[in-house]
Amino acid sequence: MFRNSHTLVKFYWKHQLNNHFRSSSSIFTRCGSSFHQDRNSENKRYSVYSALSLSFVGALSYYLYKDEIKNYLIENHQVQALRKEAVQEEISCGIRRKDLPTYSSEEVSQHDNPNNGIWVSYKEGVYNITDFVTKHPGGQNKIMMAAGGSIDPFWMVFANHNKSEILELLESMRIGNLRSEDVYKKTADTFDPYALEPVRSKILKVNGKQPFCAEPPPPLLVKNFKTPKDVFYVRNHLPVPIIDIENYELELAVEDDTIKTLTLEDIKKYPKYTVTSAIMCGGNRRSEMADAKPLRGLSWSVGAIGNASWSGARLCDVLNGLGVKEEDYNHVQFEGMDLDPSGIPYGASIPISKAFDPRADVLLAYEMNEEEISLDHGYPIRVIVPGVVGARNVKWCNKIIFSKDESPSQFQQNDYKGFSPSIDWDNVDFKTAPAIQELPVTSAICIPQRGERITVDKNGTIPVKGYAWSGSGKKIIRVDVTVDQGETWHIAKLVAQDPDAKEGRHYAWTLWSLDLPVDKTKGSVEIWVKAVDSAYNTQPESFKNIWNLRGFLCNAYHRVKVDLV
Amino acid sequence: MFRNSHTLVKFYWKHQLNNHFRSSSSIFTRCGSSFHQDRNSENKRYSVYSALSLSFVGALSYYLYKDEIKNYLIENHQVQALRKEAVQEEISCGIRRKDLPTYSSEEVSQHDNPNNGIWVSYKEGVYNITDFVTKHPGGQNKIMMAAGGSIDPFWMVFANHNKSEILELLESMRIGNLRSEDVYKKTADTFDPYALEPVRSKILKVNGKQPFCAEPPPPLLVKNFKTPKDVFYVRNHLPVPIIDIENYELELAVEDDTIKTLTLEDIKKYPKYTVTSAIMCGGNRRSEMADAKPLRGLSWSVGAIGNASWSGARLCDVLNGLGVKEEDYNHVQFEGMDLDPSGIPYGASIPISKAFDPRADVLLAYEMNEEEISLDHGYPIRVIVPGVVGARNVKWCNKIIFSKDESPSQFQQNDYKGFSPSIDWDNVDFKTAPAIQELPVTSAICIPQRGERITVDKNGTIPVKGYAWSGSGKKIIRVDVTVDQGETWHIAKLVAQDPDAKEGRHYAWTLWSLDLPVDKTKGSVEIWVKAVDSAYNTQPESFKNIWNLRGFLCNAYHRVKVDLV
């Protein structure tokens, strides 16, 4: 697990922080958050050193630009607002309770294994999470890092825990109070890992603040065949890393051994390929599945998808001449420069056959829609794995590993997987399901939106627009729409598809449009859409039978009820 | 259309007729049926010369072995029985009617175009089929071959027309009687193209007699991971050709120009590859879709699928060194040695990228389950296109054409395609849908069968078994079974998968099994099954919303109602 321990104290140099600094032409350098693991036998707590553990270079840059950072934080209303909301949500959990006993951090630390019970502290509270550990949606390994210690520093990074339902769940496991002098304190110098995220377009609806997860409004999504970067959904899993582009290197390794390093310029020397590919989050449309039955995960509407042209070096070209043989390994792992509190990078892997196959079009992309990839979308290098779930299209990639094994990352092992509807958090075993790679066929109505009042035109129709997409390079061949529960299906016009896609490599989405006949006298209609791909796979009708505990693969018919006037 | 006119008078030599002749060690030679097109300006009828038009060699062989043929026909009860039934079905149509006028064949022949109206004769009847031509399920081109003439000889080959509903439909277009002296007469020497079909295993349930289409009983299907040849479904489109193996050649052509020919021995010189691949008919499970709403096509149950290992040369190896460039063409067409009455061979095509891709595992197979491929399954060469509908896995292949265009065959152009449920025979335009290639995910329950009485065992379960498969090389990752309409899903055990399949190339089927908990007190249960493949595509719930006029792609949940005792 600590193969990447060399990254534990790692400093980044900023290349382009955000538009704010760009426009004021500030030269800005920032050090990333860094966490140090201190696991001595006496006190098995994780200590988090942030500013405190800054190395010389990092510290120097921090202090040189401290005022700029402070000013930035004050000026950046968006970040401030987010933090304020987060704080408000926290108030119901971790407050001292008079009805419970008090424990020292030493006592808590003795409960770091199943035999003694697993305890953690959060603010002033002490919790027995023994029974919950195996059910932790983020994986057992991750939650065990906090065993016997404070979860506060972890939740600074995995700030998506700051939700009422999670705080409530934690509080239900409360067993006591933490001795006042042992309560984890954010020091004045603690560097908030999310303080310097890029400024985002106000267009996006924010589903998760830290890490940042946001999607555009559906009608905007279908305005362009290629989604502009500011409209393109963002699904980060960790704080956005700060990129020291001057010293950027992509490391290529076979298991634990580095075999080559490439600078950005080196990567740009390979033939430049362009592929238009949609990228979709595995949880896109989760809100609809959650309507069928509650589940855990960010509440995405239909916007966790975007379509862009990506340009860069083909991975198969980079692999060529390395001396690595496809048959000797099973997987190609990618690591991002975004780190979790223990210094482990975001990671994912794909089958090695896809990496070696020139027809799979896997890219080390440095351009998105003919421009340098923006920070939120993976600058300087994002791995593009066309037809495959967003989670494997690794942003900020700085390491590629050929391995017998899949990525050890929890996002590969214990997160992006699908299960039978009968599997719940009490009986789930993540090992029984394969990591999601290629995605099934889906479609969505973006215009109109649920609950809208639509004027029926003189021909008795209403305009309906949306997208359709299938993984694995399958082309969308038909989109069917009904307003009478399938008694009559209307065939939509496919208004935009990639004209340059090669046979079997239709990675871009399809935009569709239809003047849908409706009966105005009904007052309202429920519009259903389903798409069919070139393997004639089509969507399941309803969410009930594809429901899964993490809310992935939400590709049932999209149903939108609207009022007619 | 008549690119293949050189095949019009083509004679076959038998290699191995059937087990009957094999066991009696007969040396047997047979000529195939041959049809000659006689389209002079005065009489645009198609004349069918069978024994009459035999060339010297064919005639010689026929007369040399006439008695053997006769004896064979007498002895072969199966063939006799089939013919008898076919004759019985014909009685309701084409009989002289006193209420209608009489026309000469000369008068009929003047009605061979839309301007004059399109007439045909059948036995003693004359029919105006003008309005039906565009709705002909077998394609407009095919039916127009009989325009102005007799359809009798065509129906000898396309004997699947001998069905009450088709005869009834024809009779509804009746306008008159044909002059007695012009009525088409099968001469004593007419060679029945179906007279010498291989003798088939009695195991198979016959869905179509001529051409032969048959499937095994479901419980037998899941007895073996590799389906034995006598249990493997047969879906022929034309009479089985007689193979002159001594003179067999596989012709490779670029558009109209032959660039190479290979003997069977030449093909066997390429490296031998083995791929285990299921082959499924595009109409498998059609009977269930027809239950939802009537449609046209053979009534397949769940048995129009089989799984076998196929060995032969990889097509990509054969293409290597030919000088044909993938980027110069779009499709690779295959022709079989089975001919229609006008001498046009069965044909199909696949995208050229699949032919050139070593990872697509397209084979020119000469072995099935480690034995020489039997006559019914495509001896001597069957093209195996793993993951792709059976219709493109061309049997008896003797020609491969690199082309800008798809196969002109009606089976490519106007047959194996999927449509929206709203498309019917009045508004269908076959050009609007792509030819079916890769197939969607499916599954079926083979044990128990519908209506069976099943004894619930002491644990309160019943044994359930079946298969699951997905095209495109997608692996089956899960099979879910329910007896309460999806309230509870039970996960089946995947008992057999191809252990040698490479990542993304899982072409074999998966056999699954489950001891399914049931409530005996309910008296009966309806079992539903759905499979999930490695792209997490799953099956649609019901047939209503995937219904299509030809009854292809019948992959909704399989539902089997049984009684419990």
From TrEMBL, chains A, B:
Annotated protein name in UniProt: sulfite oxidase
Locations listed in the record: Mitochondrion intermembrane space
Matches recorded under PANTHER family: SULFITE OXIDASE, MITOCHONDRIAL (PTHR19372:SF7), SULFITE REDUCTASE (PTHR19372)
The UniProt record lists the keyword Disulfide bond: no
Taxonomic path: Eukaryota, Metazoa, Ecdysozoa, Arthropoda, Hexapoda
One of the record's GO molecular function terms: molybdenum ion binding
Source organism of the structure: Nasonia vitripennis (Parasitic wasp)
Domain Cytochrome b5 heme-binding: start-end pairs: 100-179
An example Gene Ontology CC term for this record: mitochondrial intermembrane space
Enzyme class, spelled out: oxidoreductase
Cofactor: Mo-molybdopterin; heme b
UniProt KW keywords: Heme, Iron, Membrane, Metal-binding, Mitochondrion, Molybdenum, Oxidoreductase, Transmembrane, Transmembrane helix
Pfam families documented for this protein: Cyt-b5, Mo-co_dimer, Oxidored_molyb
DNA repair keyword on record: no
